[in-house]
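Quarterly update, task 2.4: iron/sulfur cluster-bound model.
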Amino acid sequence: MTLRPAAKGWCPGAYRPMDSGDGLILRVRPVLARLTADQALGLCAAARTHGSGLIDLTNRANLQLRGVTAGRHQALIDDLWALGLLDADPTLEGRRNILVDPSWQDGDETQRIATALSTRLAALPPLPAKFGFAIDAGPAPVLGKASADIRVERGISGGLILRADGSALGCAISAPDAAEAVLALAQWFADTGGAQAGRMARHLPDQPLPEAFCPDQAPAAPGSLPRPGETQPGPVYGAAFGQIDAGALARLITDSGAQALRVTPARCVVLEGGLAVSSPAFITQPDDPLLRVDACPGAPLCASATVETRALARRLAPLARGSLHISGCAKGCARAGAADVTLTGRNGAFDLVRGGAAWDAASVPGLAPDHLPAVLGAL
Ligand code: SF4
């Protein structure tokens, strides 16, 4: 394994957008990963008015509006503010990296703990921008593969546990104490120099957890995130590579009559209370091969890329037997960990990595894009 190359030093929040090859990217972090239908429709309109009309679903269940020009940034902030999608305080906005089990229900432990933590963001110590929390208190943990540093999840004994990412075990906690326990673990991370490591999983090998967090209980057997198809809260639709056309999303919401939209870290949306309607712009089958493929925007949208990625990903998806990651460069933005096959762009060609990440050593370097279907078909 080799170390992941340095990514840009912050996550693109709404107040602090990131420049990309197609303009500014603004990230919206909906509370509890849920937008009312009116908020979602307003967001779609804002994406078209002030940006390119493309929206990314991120692997932290956020939404990114792309292609915003610097001159439209403030007008977009005003629209998002009017929709109730922003915190007044940009610092708190940047700290609200709280992932939730997307199947939470009103009054359940996930909703109560995430809400309590949201009200205590000001008490968090300074943390690296990518530091995040997973509140995963349903009957079985579903966020184990999603990026987070501190997890509240169901333990094997049936109660809740607090688990530092990178530790196989967590310590038992009660729901009323969970938010304060998260704060205490975040404080320990900050006090012991975690900022230097950047993430909890990189910090733990150098700084074992103290007795106070007594990690002695494994998480319960994992469950699954909602996949495309009909589910109890409403139909689920997938977005290939997490990218959505704002006009298509607005039509989907309106046609389905949904009351709200939930975003999952698997780059799907749940149309809460909606009817299943057909929409060719979305993935509707749980076995669609595109669901196994991650691909970043690549060239020409990202200045770091020397290769096109997403059209290639569509060609290769039916040939992939397991997970496939196509990355425009070794930073690997679209997938934080290993895939069965990773294709990493470099100088206009691709390095093939088996069972690794975009920054790992290649098994086969320098493959021309046109040769990839034959190479993948032969694996
Ligand atoms: S991985 Fe893709 S999106 Fe990320 S910097 Fe590289 S080319 Fe750009």
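Highlight for this quarter: The CA atoms of residues 350 and 366 lie 5 Å apart.
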